[in-house]
Structures
1.
Amino acid sequence: MSKETMSRRDALKLGVVGAGAAMLSAANAMAAAPIEKDVKFDEEYDVIVIGTGFAGLAAAAKAAERGYKVLILEKMGRIGGNSVINGGGMAVPNSTWQKKYGIQDSGELFIADCLKAGLGINHVELLETIVKRAQDALDFSIKCGAKWQDVKPAWFGGHSAPRSLVTDNMSGSGVIKPMHEFVEKLPGCKIMTRTKMDDFVMSNDGTSVVGVTARINYRFDAKLLSDDVENKTGEKKVYKAKKGVVLASGGFSMDKVYRKLQDPRLAEDMDATNHEGATAGALLKAFQIGAFPVHVSWIQQGPWASPDERGFGVAPLLTQQGLFKLGIAVDVRNGKRFMNEMADRKTRADAEYVILREAPKAYPVAIGTYNTFEEQVYPIMEKGITGGVMKKFDTIDALAANYKIPADALKETIKKYNEDAKNGTEDQFKKQSLKDVKGKEAIEMKGPFYAIRLVPKPHHTMGGLQINTKAQVISANTNKPIPGLYAAGEVTGGTHGASRLGTVAVTDCLTFGMIAGENI
Amino acid sequence: MSKETMSRRDALKLGVVGAGAAMLSAANAMAAAPIEKDVKFDEEYDVIVIGTGFAGLAAAAKAAERGYKVLILEKMGRIGGNSVINGGGMAVPNSTWQKKYGIQDSGELFIADCLKAGLGINHVELLETIVKRAQDALDFSIKCGAKWQDVKPAWFGGHSAPRSLVTDNMSGSGVIKPMHEFVEKLPGCKIMTRTKMDDFVMSNDGTSVVGVTARINYRFDAKLLSDDVENKTGEKKVYKAKKGVVLASGGFSMDKVYRKLQDPRLAEDMDATNHEGATAGALLKAFQIGAFPVHVSWIQQGPWASPDERGFGVAPLLTQQGLFKLGIAVDVRNGKRFMNEMADRKTRADAEYVILREAPKAYPVAIGTYNTFEEQVYPIMEKGITGGVMKKFDTIDALAANYKIPADALKETIKKYNEDAKNGTEDQFKKQSLKDVKGKEAIEMKGPFYAIRLVPKPHHTMGGLQINTKAQVISANTNKPIPGLYAAGEVTGGTHGASRLGTVAVTDCLTFGMIAGENI
């Protein structure tokens, strides 16, 4: 390489000052983040937030509420990332809701549940922070306008108690929309969509984050193998962040390149529950300025997804709050149950994969009856049926015939299961939630019967960068916080360990987003 | 941060030109790697190799053999990293040795074994490369002077066939010492110990590696929480690498900070099988110039280590080639077996942890008799006994009394086990290797009996940076190789997936070290 080659610093300086857009669009192919003296800031803010999911909006709302001038960058055309298509459940241990509905819970129990699912590698100080602050985060979401169903908290798989609130509209949009409006109304708060952060801008000594480079009028292109590397759309801007940057750019379940490096079984064309923009670009840039990679190899697959719809869809709600708690999931080849339908996600996804590796098209089937559904999901049942994800049958024989399940074996499975439920005896998989049924059938044999085919889908990337309890990003070069850099939500690692429990993502995102906004 | 603050570039330039050593010693606290035009090279080489383990020496030997001027940097005072204290076993599928001793094997079987232990997330193209080139790597080691025992290959846990060669002295030093001498003799090859690489030097456009910054007269300090961050000893030097740098800096099982981020159960004072210098510093610097982190959360713990010695010690050899294949491991609380003693490492370490979590001091005990030992380890048996790691008992009663194992239960366990061995029936854990015993006792009841207490120790960090089959490091910024950067051995990720099989590390390191030296 010749010494005469133009340095990246020079290129960037020239580009910004001289509007050399073509040269700059290749900046993300280069190695080091630019430093302050080599850039010219187009605009100045107190705080810059990357991402508009739960974590990003909570950070922005909290920072703006404190009087800061906040810029929020969103690379996609719409607000809300995965949060806006999420199921809207939030686990809050020791919540005012639990007290109201007489549910016993404790912080210790919540942490023990998370550690069990997380295979013991969770960062306990982050879980303790959630125990301390989740109710505050819930209250803050309500202040921002979120509406939560005023019913007994829901009982999700892997939790030892019912502790999950669900939004009024059973979607994360029930939080994102009001929070978005809240942020928009605060003075000095600005959201820019189709604006992609490309890199951090560092202080002249290279130690602190003082801004970001970004492209406006950027168009995400899902057809590219790697949008982060290949997409050259948009015009370069440089934004100063006087107080700092909050990275809330989410996970990478749709990053065809990076998810496959962690798990080569995740083929490029494999569906996930995520929106198409869920890529690793910003996370990888954070590693390049010294953030520690933590737990990045753990990609959670949702065991409650269906091959009969794209993306997240409605199956996760209909199975988790309809078919799993009192209903069953069976192996179509033999009509037998093969897992505790309420186990943690990893245990269940692994159990489904055992079947799918033996017979790739033999999707297991979840089965329930009207009484197995929780009240909250009644409005979605019809949507599931018209969309073709859920099927309704008058008899077990019709159901068995449709999925080519041996009917007699299936009847035997349900008979045994119902007996256990009725008698209050422990079923073969020691499913705790079955104890809720007393003296009657769990699956009502009069029918009708509801069924959904199951397939695990990449859902949440457990790992990311290391933060402390103040949401500060820790540097591998100093073992101390990187001044000016905060992060929250799925882009961070540690909270969930190897595998996350359902509805703890919303808790994690809102809590640490709020904390980032408080501390920056 | 003021714009007047001196930039890192300026600091480095000043430092090198003006000998500002104090300022430069803090360079590793800063973010970005320096670029070529901002440094003054003290010396120029064709190739710079970081690390003197199997991978580093193989790369150096191969590159030097091609006529290149090679500089090898070793941060410790001695050559060989973990390799020189390793057990000296190398798995070679389809080896000339196997053919000589009439052992059936295949590349497919080797890859299937690795994928099974690796939980299916191994990068198969790297395993295929090993299948193609492991014999070449073995031959190259012999050319360099390594001596391997000319006996039937050993059968290690998780392998479906005996395919592991062992060095004459049953230690990795049997490869490292001759390879070190081979390298020293080649013209233009220079090894510098106590010389720590601090960072890469990048080309002026930031895309290629053109050298390294390092410190000579550096003294590793095991007492520091993080030597990589805190140690300020040594004097700065800058070395040019005209052809490129081979990163062969090993794993991070002794990095108190980084290993704990991946698994918080690994307390700072926890022993490992590794030498004290096995830290993540160089790996983390590679992430900072864009290398992809792969599988870094997977830390393998050796299920064959003993709490009765520090570090690697002799227990791994005495258990793997003495007590596990035909002997047994028992839970001291009930005298029962609790695992297939020949399962893969993760399965066995997890099984030991189940016991140790229930009763932290109840170390399981491995038990065998003289006939259970392989000929190769006879010379080490006495060393194990005099060192206090292995104990010898005349009777089962004496053994049981010593470890407080219920004697009757233990006798019952051995009786059942011996019956299975004698009758050729499958034992409770389906241990394949037991089929080697025909018509007699596996554990000879006449004694004497040998026993070793077991504890898992962090042994090998599975993850690292992403390489291709040419040992080129892949950039997250381009999805293409970083020009001038190669890597091999434990610093890379992918080959072993979630968990490595025994003796495949030597294969991985020698093969990809050789390939890096061939391609650079």
Note: Chain B has a mean pLDDT of 92.
2.
Amino acid sequence: MRPQIVIFGDSITEQSFRSGGWGAALADNYSRKADIVLRGYGGYNTRWALFLLHHLFPLGSAAPPVAATVFFGANDAALSGRTSERQHVPIEEYKENLRKIVHHLKECSPAMLVVLITPPPIDEEGRMAYARSLYGDKAMELPERTNEVTGVYATRCVELAKELGLPSINLWSKMQETEGWQKKFLSDGLHLTPEGNAVVHQEVARVFNEAGLSAPEMPSEVPHHSEIDGKDPQKAFQLQCS
Amino acid sequence: MRPQIVIFGDSITEQSFRSGGWGAALADNYSRKADIVLRGYGGYNTRWALFLLHHLFPLGSAAPPVAATVFFGANDAALSGRTSERQHVPIEEYKENLRKIVHHLKECSPAMLVVLITPPPIDEEGRMAYARSLYGDKAMELPERTNEVTGVYATRCVELAKELGLPSINLWSKMQETEGWQKKFLSDGLHLTPEGNAVVHQEVARVFNEAGLSAPEMPSEVPHHSEIDGKDPQKAFQLQCS
């Protein structure tokens, strides 16, 4: 059985196999080593994600994933009283839901590498422009997400990772280190451009490498074609595939 | 268990999760419906692929793939007596090896949709330019693959699909319908540009749709976020996830 790495999250995970996406880039890195399993659910917050845990990560599996990224918060941080209120989850509940997710994953497999990823920053102007492009004059006047509030969610996510001794990626901070992050990394003020996807890919690859899960160092499932003797191919396969 | 669609082939499959790749595009289409499982092995021909069958597609699996693409021939068609001779597989053996692959997959699961894909056409000038870029004056003077010979392999592949009643994609013919296919679809005379990847994606999606495996028509694993009642989320999950 080939190792599985599950990427679990909201739309930013669901869309990660589009052109230039971070999930596809990981799948390319691990193409002959591990499967990148896409479990992204657009619009989901951590409260709704809890309902999926037993379905997606059944306890007692003979071959649980070796690693998982948990990438929620962009919807939890939608503001109460605004147009995306349905998705809002209070900050303390967000943290506790993340804790429950981690707890479940570790119950699946104590050895699983669990990486928490914070939501990206919000470009409020970009969100407004996107709303106007969809709804014209009927677009909301007030933002449904603010960068400041999303930053509080990011802080809680990183805080929890520290409490639990897990690696985390503070995407909210990381992206804002680059000038012009608003348009460079975000396509509609929230979702990622190819450049924004490259930041996630680079960070996830870095964390996996640091945790000893680097693709080049993982054992190869089958021989490289250059190792196959054209006159006696069986030899190479007996070594690795028996 | 979520349905699995395996893409099995050589480097053109292995590289299909790079930016703009056809495998990643399929994974995006099926993101909440099925897993696209990458089993691409650069440099492999059908003779070497046979050694992988029991390893990649064990008989007696409780959840065999629902579909598989089989995409070999670009290496089999490397010419005997030229620089890629190691990879050459005689034309009749190529066809018989493909038959063995199909036979194994159908033994895994008689219901599995097996789609045969021919190698793409060869831009001999592009291959030469690529060799010169790598080896300078030491590059081969004679092509290691020709478009004509690869076309014979493509014909045998389609012929076998007809004999076995399987769908097939004649990529060799399809790509040559477009003027300027040499540079438009091929990056080094053999591997695919993003536009070339788009042709494969479009053809595979068409065949899957015709066979009743279209992503929009497959059942959804979990509710869309718009179906979740913010005040009573459990309801939506009880319907679909129990």
Note: Strands of chain B lie at 4-9, 35-40, 67-71, 113-117, 168-169.
